[in-house]
Amino acid sequence: MNYEPVIGLEVHIQLLTKSKIFCTCSTQFGAEQNTQVCPVCLGMPGVLPVLNEKVVEYAIKLALATNCKINHHSVFARKNYFYPDLPKGYQISQFEEPFCENGYISILQEDIDKKIGLTRIHFEEDAGKSMHSEHYVGSDETLVDVNRCGVPLLEIVSEPDIRSPQEAYSYLVKLRQIVRYLGICDGNMEEGSLRCDANISVRPAGETRLGVKTELKNMNSFKSVEKALEYEINRQISTLKDNEEIVQQTLLWDADRNVAEPMRSKEDSHDYRYFPDPDLVPVIVDDEWIDRVKAEMPELAGEKIKRFVNNYGLPEYDAQVLTEDIAVADYFEAAAAGVKDKKTASNWVMGEVLRVVKESSGGVKKLNVTPAFLADIINMIEEDMINTKIAKNVFEKCLQTGKNPRDIVKQEGMQQISDDSEIETLIEKVIQESPNEVLAFKAGKTKILGFFVGQIMKATQGKANPKTVNQILMKKLNEYRG
Predict the structure, then answer these.
(1) Exposed, middle or buried by CB within 10 Å (0-12, 13-18, 19+), for 302?
(2) Of 132, 465, 474, 480, which has the maximum CB count within 10 A?
(3) What is the largest CA-CA distance in the chain?
(4) Which of 38-52, 76-90, 241-255, 261-275 is predicted with the least confidence, judged by mean pLDDT?
(5) Is 232 a residue whose pLDDT tops 70?
(6) CA 337 to chain centre
(7) Which three-class secondary structure state does DSSP give residue 402?
(8) Please, are residues 14 and 193 in contact by the beta-carbon 8 Å criterion?
């Protein structure tokens, strides 16, 4: 029997606000443990939370970007559970009346657009962080850092429309791209600012009813999500083929061992005993507020692709590659502003720049080769000051030192030799020293031309103008042919 997986993802994104969702404590990542807290985010008796207006604005942006229906009236609820990293014993979230619903995100699968439905997006506050004993030599206890308590989250709950781990990967990549373009979340899974839980079941192909689902947690990269889903799909199918039942439970993914192990029986909504939060008023969003945010929406990736094709004359493939990451798109635009040939700028960014970015962890913003420096390198080629081979050498030296490319060329004597008489003298010398190769050329072996070019480039340390070399070389060798 063939089975198909049914996958739904619950993604939490930390918002890039300066303060927490219900108080003025800082949200800065990496601060000393337990220093960014106050009676409000710790839930002390007698305190009153106040909603951060910026959180609502960011939620409107995400709702608009994901085609959601924004509810003009939504309500906060208390989600009750007891973990060491939850000082209040409950989490402020939303349940029956979420902020927005019924949206979708389009992903490209095998050149076909597929819409992944969104059930809802709602507000939530983050919990603290448990630090287990393996992080602390000599400790057999779990320590708790509550700095993260009250950091604003948006939870994006998808419909069970995903049918493979690869689709799940594509969905997460697209969602991260959206939140980065909006400027509301940095999408860093390693730091926990984007976290994903997966609900998964399998069913016989053609069946419409859903099977018993399990939940996967503790996945800290998109590749981990993909691997964990593959593992769980195979485990569930094997279980059913052995005529055993799937148990509804929560599983923790162990990336070191590539296995998922049971954590607890999976909760249903009634296990959390939701009830409306008595300390928070409903969130009222009117059309005027939505229209104001809509007018301030940034250009998203799809719009940027069209503009790159129409305004810069780039192939659609180039535009798609350059817009995958907004930082790369911004880098390209800044470099392209300083050169005539936008396609050449695209080639350099897709080639040398992205190669370096992939090899390092700093990202394009931290490159020593700024967009202005890259434009200088491209312009020096256009000016016949350097050739492409030397340009790549200049790029590497600029990358290592952060020096201005034009200064590097001048200080290291890397200017291209374009003087016809100087190149002609070098060619005549190489021809005189290579009689056998000249005879081979006269006999019709034109591929020997590469030998002569190589000798000339070697003699000039790669600084001879290749176009000039080829023109004069062909003229001289054809004279030998008679």
Answers:
(1) middle
(2) 465
(3) 102
(4) 261-275
(5) yes
(6) 24
(7) coil
(8) yes
Give the three-state DSSP class for 176.
helix
The answer to whether the beta carbons of residues 116 and 107 sit under 8 Å apart is yes
d(CA 408, CA 392): 12
108, β-bridge pairs: 113
Contact 391/381 with Cβ under 8 angstroms? yes
pLDDT for position 277 = 94
User: Which pairs count as long-range contacts for 109-113, CB under 8 Å and 24+ apart, including other chains?
Assistant: 109/166, 109/167, 109/170
355 C-beta neighbours (distance < 10 Å), count:
10
Q: Where are the beta strands (DSSP E) in 220-268?
A: 249-254, 259-265
- Average predicted confidence (pLDDT) for the chain: 90
Task: Report CA-CA distances (Å) from 383 to 156, 340, 378.
Answer: 52, 12, 9
CATH number for domain 420-481, candidates 1.10.340.30, 3.90.550.10, 3.40.190.10, 1.10.10.410: 1.10.10.410
- Cβ contact 192:1 at 8 Å: no
Q: What is the DSSP string of 261-281?
A: EEEEEPPPGGGGT-EE-TTSP
Token pair, residue 222, equals 């998109």
From CA 41, how far away is CA 20, in angstroms rounded?
8
Q: How far is CA 280 from CA 41, 47, 51, 204, 253, in A?
A: 14, 11, 8, 46, 36
Q: How many angstroms from the chain centroid is the CA of residue 405?
A: 29
Which amino acid is located at 324 in the chain? E
How far is residue 421's CA from residue 418's CA, in Å, rounded to a whole number? 9
- pLDDT for the residue numbered 265: 66
* CB-based contact 250:241 (threshold 8 Å): no
Alpha helical stretches, state H, 261-353: 287-295, 301-312, 316-323, 326-336, 342-348
Question: Kind of pairing, strands 275-276 and 76-80?
Answer: antiparallel
What is the DSSP track for 356-412? HHHHSSS-GGG-SS-HHHHHHHHHHHHTTSS-HHHHHHHHHHHHHH---HHHHHHHT
Look up the pTM and report it.
0.86
Closest C-alpha to 70, from 13, 105, 104, 120: 120
Looking at residue 462, what DSSP letter applies? T
CA dihedral 297, 300, 302, 303 (to 10 degrees): 50
Distances (CA, A) of 452 to 312, 386, 423, 459: 38, 20, 12, 11
- Encoded tokens for 353: 């720049």
Tokens matching residue 145: 């850092």
174, two tokens: 């697209």
Which tokens is 113 given? 């657009």
Average pLDDT over every residue of 383-389: 88
Q: Parse the chain into domains and list their residue ranges.
A: 3-291, 299-411, 420-481
